[in-house]
């Protein structure tokens, strides 16, 4: 029997990652579930308690930071104590990573939207997309739905999958689950909503800071995929976003790779305030608007990056084990 503990730390972590990806893909084929739904409910109730409208913007921002600390610190301590007590380390790390990784139902959702748009069932497409995005889907045309779906595929993959996996590989399962919980706080307290404009500032900044490196790695691989498509021009157009603390670099490179326009105006509604249009950054403005088939093309590019990343990590692990065996 193979002794997994004899593997290098990198190979051991990679084995857990690949195992969880396979298990989660298999489970998601039969049922799409969200292990953190109860945590989302908790975040909503917590904000109702501490995010008081009568407080000043500074007080609400501080309240948001305190809410993050009093939520994450006890959870991190409890999970750390369990990690010490658990004897089967492989299963414990796999369980934490399984919870930390986001839903694998993006492809299924995108396929339903593509089919609905192809058959002119825009209402079905809007209802299918709505749980996956913060923006209002009702005013969207077929072009808007295609654009929103492409952006959703990229951002969800980056935040729920790619960044979580890299944090797990580099730091460990406890950091990965804490980041995923922080992401859920950011989604629940998104500063694009008037109610959370100040309360959600720290969760937004922390998420942007933590995912900066994974997003840049993903973006550089996107740039490599553009070789043969005027990669120098694509890099020149995307370079201004490289050192900024958001996902614009990835959105820009995807738009340029697909030769379509992304970004622009979005409408948000938090039910307690009137709908508000926010003008987001536009990417590749001179290109055509996205079409339904671009959703499928975007999915292939995004998953191509994932496969390239996994291939690179497997190759690196094999090299480490080979050197260790012959040293």
Q: What overall geometry do the principal axes of the alpha carbons give?
A: globular
Number of domains: 1
Instruction: State the share of residues found in helices, binned by percent.
Output: 55-70%
Note the beta-strand portion. under 5%
Cα end-to-end separation: 23 Å
Low-confidence stretches: none
Per DSSP, the total helix count is 13
- The largest beta-sheet arranges its strands as 1-2
Transmembrane segments: 12-32, 61-82, 162-183, 209-228, 249-268, 301-324
Keywords: Cell membrane, Cobalamin biosynthesis, Membrane, Transmembrane, Transmembrane helix
Membrane topology: Multi-pass membrane protein
Subcellular location: Cell membrane
Give an overview of the whole structure.
- The chain is mostly helical.
- It has one domain (9-325).
- The protein is built from 13 helices and 2 strands, in the order ααααααααααααββα.
- Strands 1-2 form a two-stranded antiparallel sheet.
- A hairpin with a 7-residue loop joins strand 1 and strand 2.
- The chain is globular and about 55 Å long.
- It is a multi-pass membrane protein.
- This is Cobalamin biosynthesis protein.
- Keywords: Cell membrane, Cobalamin biosynthesis, Membrane, Transmembrane, Transmembrane helix.
Task: Annotate the secondary structure layout.
Elements: H1 9-30, H2 37-50, H3 57-85, H4 89-100, H5 106-118, H6 122-129, H7 142-170, H8 173-188, H9 201-210, H10 212-225, H11 231-238, H12 248-258, E1 262-268, E2 276-283, H13 292-325
Antiparallel strand pairs: 1-2
Helix pairs in contact: 1-4, 1-7, 2-8, 3-8, 4-8, 5-6, 5-7, 5-13, 6-7, 7-8, 7-13, 8-9, 10-12, 10-13, 11-12
Pfam families: CobD_Cbib
Pathway: Cofactor biosynthesis; adenosylcobalamin biosynthesis
InterPro entries: Cobalamin_biosynth_CobD/CbiB
């Amino acid at each position: 029997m193979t002794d997994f503990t004899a593997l290098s730390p990198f190979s051991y972590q990679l084995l857990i990652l690949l195992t969880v990806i396979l298990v989660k893909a298999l489970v998601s084929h039969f049922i799409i579930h969200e292990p953190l739904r109860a945590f989302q409910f908790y975040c909503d109730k917590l904000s109702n308690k501490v995010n008081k409208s009568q407080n000043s913007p500074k007080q609400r921002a501080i309240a948001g930071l305190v809410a993050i600390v009093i939520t994450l610190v006890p959870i991190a301590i409890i999970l750390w104590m369990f990690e010490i007590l658990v004897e089967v380390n492989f299963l414990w790390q796999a369980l934490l990573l399984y919870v930390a990784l986001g839903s694998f139902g993006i492809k299924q959702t995108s396929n339903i939207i593509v089919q609905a748009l192809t058959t002119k069932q825009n209402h079905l497409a809007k209802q299918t997309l709505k749980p996956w995005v913060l923006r209002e889907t009702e005013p969207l045309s077929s072009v808007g739905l295609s654009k929103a779906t492409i952006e959703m595929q990229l951002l969800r993959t980056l935040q729920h999958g790619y960044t979580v996996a890299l944090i797990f590989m580099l730091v460990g399962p406890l950091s990965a689950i804490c980041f995923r919980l922080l992401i859920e706080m950011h989604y629940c307290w998104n500063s694009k909503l008037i109610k959370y404009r100040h309360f959600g500032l720290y969760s937004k900044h922390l998420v942007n800071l933590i995912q900066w490196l994974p997003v840049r790695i993903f973006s550089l691989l996107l740039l490599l995929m553009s070789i043969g498509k005027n990669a120098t021009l694509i890099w020149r157009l995307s370079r201004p976003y490289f050192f900024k603390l958001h996902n614009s670099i990835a959105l820009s490179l995807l738009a340029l790779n697909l030769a379509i326009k992304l970004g622009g105006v979005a409408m948000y509604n938090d039910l307690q305030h009137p709908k508000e249009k926010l003008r987001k950054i536009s990417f590749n403005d001179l290109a055509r608007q996205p079409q339904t088939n671009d959703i499928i093309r975007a999915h292939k590019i995004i998953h191509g990056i994932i496969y390239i990343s996994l291939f690179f990590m497997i190759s690196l692990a094999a090299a480490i084990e080979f050197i260790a065996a012959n040293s």
